[in-house]
Amino acid sequence: ATKAADEAKIAADAAAKAMAAAKAAEDAEAAAKEAIARAQAAKEAAEKAAEEEYKAITAEVKADTAKPVDYTFKRQGEEIFRRDMGEPEFFLDKKDRFPRPILSQEQQESLTRQAETPQDQTPKYNPQHVLSPEFGGLSNYERGVDSFLEEAKATLAKIKSDPESTLKQIRDAENDVKYLESIHENYFIGMNVFRTAKGGRSKLKA
Questions:
Q1: In what helix (H) or strand (E) does residue 89 lie, and over which residues does it extend?
Q2: Looking at beta carbons, which pairs linking 86-89 to residues 24 or more positions away fall under 8 Å?
Q3: Structure pTM?
Q4: Which of 1, 24, 180, 189 would disulfide-bridge 149, Cβ 3.0–4.6 Å?
């Protein structure tokens, strides 16, 4: 009797487990069906949104294509230049035009003579700034070159008086003197343009 009771209990447990497994399978199947339905609904919604977006883009493209241009060309067959009038035709429609005065023959000849007559248009030389008298009419540059020139001449005289000096040293010293004299003269000639007229430097030295 005890053995039969145990077998019955085992069979009941197995049946309960089988029922639980079957219920779990049913629940899983229902969940799978629900997920499939949701996925299908999402797919349909996405397709519908894509179709609406395509329609909107198509409508926008059609609207841009049908939009008229900002400029027009209405004068294709018009004559822009009238050869019989000798001037563009749109000049005739100007509201603010006025007749230009035509010079007489005498006035034209007078203007021609005036233009052909040579006239001295050189501005009058009237310097406003001259060198300060305390510098003796010399600029700082000239005074500096003069000091270098004196030193170069003294060096040349010293080299010539030295019996041990070579010919190259004498020539180099002479070239230095010539170079300083040339730049002094060039600067003096160029600065005459900016100094007073004839006798200006003598007035400063007096």
A1: none
A2: none
A3: 0.30
A4: 180
Quick check: 123 and 192 in contact, CB under 8 A?
no
Give the SS3 label for residue 81: strand
Cα–Cα distances (Å) from 183 to 93, 141, 172, 189, in that order, read 70, 10, 17, 10
In three-state form (DSSP H/G/I as H, E/B as E, the rest C), the secondary structure along 103-115 is CCHHHHHHHHHHH
What pLDDT score was predicted for residue 206?
Answer: 44
Alpha-carbon span 89 to 98, nearest angstrom: 16
- 3-state DSSP assignment of residue 8: helix
Supply the Cα-derived Rg of the chain in whole angstroms: 57
- Residue 88 three-state SS: strand
Per-residue pLDDT, averaged over 179-190, amounts to 80
Burial class (CB in 10 A: 0-12, 13-18, 19+), 155: middle
For residue 83, is pLDDT > 80? Answer: no
So what's the pLDDT on residue 13?
A: 83
Cα-based angle 107, 113, 119 (whole degrees, multiple of 5): 130
Residue 11: pLDDT over 50? yes
Mean pLDDT over each residue of the chain, to the nearest integer: 76
Highest mean pLDDT range out of 57-66, 100-109, 160-169?
160-169
